[in-house]
Amino acid sequence: MLNKIEIRNYSTNKKLDIEFGPNVTSLIGSSYTGKSAALRALKWNITNKPSGDNFINWDAEKTSVRITFDDNKKVIRRKGKGMNLYKLGKKEFKAFGNEVPKEIREAFNMSAINFQGQHDAPFWFCETAGEVSRQLNNIVNLNIIDTTLANIASLIRKTNTAIEISQDKLKEITTKKKELAYIKDIDTDLKHLEILHSEHQKKAIGLSRIEELLQLVNKYREAREIAAQLSTGANLAISAGDRYRKVRNSRIALSKLVIEANKYIEIVDNRPPNFATIKKKKEAYILITNSINNLEDLIDDIKSRKSKIINIRMSRDLRINKLKNLTKDRCPLCLRKTKKK
After folding, report:
1. Class of the CATH domain delimited by 2-119
2. Which of 142, 255, 290, 339 is disulfide-compatible with 137, CB 3.0–4.6 A?
3. What is the DSSP-derived secondary structure letter of residue 127?
């Protein structure tokens, strides 16, 4: 119960002390004597409203309202330049904004509903049943139950919505998983194709080397034709030339196969190929491999024949030089001197 209120520089009340009796519920007095200002000062201390500082007396820089309870407990509210605080006993509360500190609120155990203005309607008699119920709930804190139930219901609705969304997403993901089950097989096939592609690239490099060797073979063929005119091994060179022509035809066929292989590579890069195509490709690969082996044998044979031709040339040159040393300027048949041209 309130025992006393001491007001300093609040609105028109520069200094006002009011002592309350056990049954005092109203302030009575002449107009413009500060009754409403005293009620606002009491309400300001208990509810921290209104905000701002327009209620400070125009002739003062700060205001204070002190309230004393039955057990001699005092609550002081001060506000002014550089000062805005509550004080409960010896404990101060600063920088609390427009809220009332919990300790102060619990000390008063009052709110705006406990105040009746001069021009306010009779308490509860002019209110609707719903408003009276709401205010009763506020007094005994039953509104906490309603607020809690409303929050729980809101949370349940949000949770149910989240569950429905999650279930829809789960169904969608499950459907997509079933639809994409074939990807594992495609991945295995693609890995196998990558291996084949890598091997094909190696074979393509081998083919380019074979083409370089074939160019060398062309040079060797020209040399062989010249050597055929100077040695008795011309027949062997001609036979080798016939085999070279077969090699050239094989090279042309291989070039066509390389072009087709490049087309197959583009098909592999763009989409998963048909396994029938892969089978044909494998057969073509086996043919290419056999052709390469035949070419390598032919090249070895050509190199061997070239070596024989070189040996024949050397033997011929040695015999010619030996013959010249023996006969010098005489005919090897009649031993007559020959005329130098």
Report:
1. alpha beta
2. 142
3. S
